[in-house]
Structure formats: structure tokens, C-alpha cells
Amino acid sequence: MLADMIWLNGLxxxxxxxxxxxxxxxxxxxxxxxxxxxxxxxxERALSIISKYSQLGGLDEHVLKHSLKD
Length: 70
Prior knowledge:
Number of strands: 0
Number of domains: 1
Largest sheet: none
Shape: elongated
Distance between the termini: 34 Å
Helix content: over 70%
């Protein structure tokens, strides 16, 4: 159960980062490059933490797909 909670929290964390980027892009027209770099690092860190306690179960592919759009 703990692994499931960690995975779910990781999903929420990475999606909130993506929502922040999408909102910024809507307001500014584009996400500043500095933010893109920092958000990518935060997403990678979240995936690293999740992988210690739970299988990623496709979350990494989903998160990386978002990063490819940036």
C-alpha cells in the first residue's frame, strides 16, 4: 500500500508541474527556458524517488512524453 501511495503522489507531483507549465504557456505564450530546465530536473527527481519504492508502471514514459513537447 505504501508503494501505491508513493506512486500516486509522484503522479500528482509530476502532473502539477505540467499544469504549471501549461498555465505559464497560456499566460505568457511560452514557458521560460529556465523554468523548462528546472521542471525537467524536478520531474526526474520525482521519478527517481518513485523508482526506489515502486515500479514506475509507465509513469516515466508519460512524464518524458510531456518533456519532449517542451
